[in-house]
Specification:
Elements (H helix, E strand, L loop, with lengths): L1 H14 L5 H11 L1 H25 L13 H19 L21 H4 L3 H16 L3 H29 L1 H12 L3 H8 L1 H22 L8
Helix pairs in contact: 1-3, 2-3, 4-6, 4-10, 6-7, 7-8
């Protein structure tokens, strides 16, 4: 368990760097913004891999008995989580994670009309539904932490973007996005992003047992 706790501690420490504004500004000044973003993304990916390895090696300490019906939660929720993640990361978004924001059109916000933080909520949904399925200490520690980060993330990102854009500009942009009807926003997501999200869900479903070692399908 100490291996998992060490990986989580480093993960939290590294992801606290963007919140320390003087340190982040100093790193960007030294390396340049593109290099900083690329390096931070590479380190984050490496930490995710480390977390996965540490989690797989953690001892199994049961907290509650396995209930196969809990798997239906993930089977029903994960398509939504995957669409949120794919659409969020591939869409322009001035409020949160996404494919940049310089060409964002508030008249055609797409997934941003549904939520300002689609990718973050996708992560939160993924982690939350995996807690009841895995009733062991390591899973509760890992998915519980990711759930807290995912749920707290939108408020933190809103605060950062407000500081960067200014309260007035942020509020005006948010109002323009909200003026678009929800049905129009859903249509603007596009069939390609929807299909890509469902394809990711299918890939995760197919690879779950070979990679994780546990079938995602309920077995009664």
């Amino acid at each position: 368990m100490s291996h998992l706790l060490a990986a989580l501690a480093v993960f939290l420490a590294v992801h606290a760097v963007p919140a320390i504004r003087p340190l982040r500004a100093r790193l960007i000044a030294i390396s340049g913004e593109r290099t900083y973003i690329a390096a931070f993304s590479a380190v984050s990916l490496g930490l995710v891999v480390w977390l996965g390895v540490a989690y797989s090696q953690a001892p199994y300490v049961e907290l509650w008995s396995y209930r196969p019906e809990f798997k239906w939660l993930a089977l029903l929720a994960m398509p939504i989580a995957c669409v949120l993640a794919v659409a969020g990361l591939t869409s322009r978004n001035p409020f949160s994670l996404g494919a940049g924001y310089t060409k964002f059109n508030p008249a055609r916000p797409g997934i941003v009309r549904v939520t300002r933080h689609p990718a973050v909520w996708g992560l939160a949904l993924w982690s939350v539904v995996h807690i009841p399925i895995n009733g062991d200490a390591a899973s509760v520690i890992l998915f519980g932490l990711l759930s807290v980060l995912g749920i707290a993330g939108p408020r933190s990102l809103d605060a950062k973007r407000k500081r960067a854009m200014g309260e007035i500009e942020w509020a005006e942009m948010a109002a323009r996005v909200e003026s678009v009807s929800l049905s129009a926003g859903l249509r603007q997501i596009g069939a390609l992003r929807m299909l890509a999200g469902l394809a990711l869900y299918g890939a995760l479903l197919f690879a779950h047992e070979p990679v994780i070692g546990i079938s995602p399908l309920p077995v009664f």
